[in-house]
Write a structure and sequence with these properties.
Elements: H1 6-22, H2 25-41, H3 47-67, H4 72-107, H5 122-138, H6 147-155, H7 157-160, H8 168-176, H9 182-215, H10 225-256, H11 274-280, H12 283-294, H13 305-323, H14 327-347, H15 355-377, H16 381-391, H17 402-421, H18 425-437, H19 440-459
Helix pairs in contact: 1-2, 2-3, 2-6, 3-4, 3-5, 3-6, 4-5, 9-10, 9-17, 9-19, 10-15, 10-16, 10-17, 12-13, 13-14, 14-15, 15-16
């Protein structure tokens, strides 16, 4: 089940909300855990066993760490076991086939691993559970003695499938005791509609052009230079509005149930550098790797440039691997390692940047991100290289063709809207008008219109799967 489905919007969510508000507060957490497991089991009931196993194991690991306060050795043993078990489950389900294929190609063996299906969102809930155990070990949070409450933290359906990766300390108090006010619910509905519209009206529309462009790989007569660029740009907007739309829906749903989740996006395409882009894109993942990998290794405050480069290499190799079992994702992560290494060692220490230089570097950042998304979207490294060559006219393709004319004509208005909504312009304007002229009712009507428009598009069969469900 996905948020952007008629079943979720008109059946699952209303029923869950209604019963939740009718139940006494002490029963609400148990209800939300039950429906979260049901939500996860929808259409893939086998996966819920992995989820329940994760809850039980991490509950036990944290309890054992808490019980061994007087013994550093035992605490470290239970922490190490928690890390090995969590990452082992993740490796088996997500990376074993990929690792086996590498061994086969190196040693010429024919090991075949079959029937390993990827549990949806396993990278998200594994990291979330692991962060809780590590924080208990560090003494940053109190251990949760109620296994059902911890289960709700790990399995809560709004952020279960594609984040944000919530840190336990940010919602520990809300799990125990939270206030569900009409104003919070109202803001949650608004935020959900905003994400719903981003996904259905923008991301799905851009996916049509992007899918067509990437399906033309190997067809120079169809993939012109301009069409290749258009396809890459459309995919850049597709993945932005797909993922940020999901995050907005998750944040909105959390508010409806009395939870405040962290922001996961902050207009990443207005970034002036690659470093800034990653402070604005998938914020919760960046913070996870910063707090649990980068800083413990020394971060940027190291005496040796070699150690700094090593730290960056490890983080971005892991970032690429986290996204998927594919050489494309690994090279995508290592590409950012290279860019960020250059920035930290050469570009950012400079203080003599002029206005023109800063503008050029902003353009370079957008270009680097755009080319990175080609790696992200292509089916393999060969396809990615072919597509990039096509963007620069190196695959024997023409500059312009009929595909370009048709899709540019059909997408012109959409591209303008995407540029506006990928910046704070619309949001700031609406906030100003609402505060200055007190036209809240008119803006509410706009949200209702957006919702109805998105629903009508959904009814007509718009493309629907979320990109980050695969991670």
């Amino acid at each position: 089940m996905v948020f952007s489905s008629l079943t979720f919007v008109f059946l699952f969510l209303p029923v869950v909300l209604l019963i939740n508000y009718l139940l006494p507060k002490k029963a609400q957490n148990y209800w939300l855990l039950i429906v979260s497991l049901f939500f996860y089991a929808w259409g893939a009931h086998n996966f819920v066993l992995v989820m329940i196993l994760s809850i039980i194991l991490n509950y036990c690991f944290a309890i054992k760490i808490e019980e061994c306060k007087e013994s550093k050795i035992l605490r470290r043993f239970w922490l190490l076991l928690a890390v090995v078990v969590n990452l082992g489950i993740l490796f088996y389900n997500k990376y074993l086939n990929f690792f086996t294929s590498i061994l086969n190609s190196v040693f010429g063996d024919s090991i075949v691993i079959t029937n390993i299906m990827l549990p949806i969102g396993i990278s998200f809930f594994t990291f979330q559970a692991l962060s809780y155990v590590i924080d208990v070990y560090r003494g940053d949070v109190k251990v949760q003695k109620n296994p059902f409450y911890l289960g709700l933290y790990i399995a809560f359906f709004p952020q279960l499938i594609a984040g944000p990766i919530i840190r336990y300390h940010t919602i520990a108090e809300q799990i125990e005791k939270r206030k569900m006010t009409l104003d919070r619910f109202y803001n949650g509905v608004r935020r959900f509609i905003s994400g719903f519209a981003q996904k259905i009206l923008l991301a799905n529309a851009f996916s049509v052009v992007a899918d067509e462009a990437f399906s033309c790989i190997g067809q120079p007569e169809n993939l012109s230079i301009t069409f290749a660029w258009l396809g890459a740009i459309c995919y850049s907007f597709q993945i932005l509005f797909d993922f940020s739309g999901y995050s907005s829906m998750a944040i909105g749903l959390g508010k409806m149930f009395g939870f405040d989740f962290m922001e996961n996006f902050n207009y990443p395409y207005i970034s002036k550098s690659v470093s800034e882009f990653w402070r604005r894109w998938h914020i919760s993942l960046g913070q996870f790797f910063r707090d649990y990998v980068y800083v413990p290794m020394g971060g940027s405050r190291v005496t040796s440039k070699f150690i700094l480069v090593r730290n960056l290499f490890v983080v971005w190799l892991l970032t690429g691997i986290w996204h998927g079992a594919s050489w494309n994702f690994i090279m995508w992560g290592l590409g950012y390692f290279l860019l960020l290494t250059i920035e930290k060692l050469i570009m950012l220490p400079r203080n003599d940047w002029g206005i023109i230089s800063k503008s050029l570097y902003r353009c370079f950042t957008l270009l680097a991100v755009l080319l990175g998304w080609v790696l992200f979207r292509a089916d393999g490294m060969h396809s990615a290289f072919y597509y990039v060559k096509s963007m620069f006219g190196l695959s024997g393709n023409a500059f312009f063709n009929g595909n370009t004319v048709r899709y540019i004509t059909n997408s012109a208005v959409l591209l303008v809207l995407a540029v506006l909504f990928s910046t704070p312009v619309i949001s700031n304007t609406l906030n100003y008008l609402e505060k200055r002229y007190r036209i809240r009712i008119l803006i509410d009507l706009c949200y209702i219109a957006l919702f109805l428009l998105a629903v009508s598009s959904l009814v007509m069969g718009a493309n629907n799967p979320f990109i980050y469900f695969n991670f």
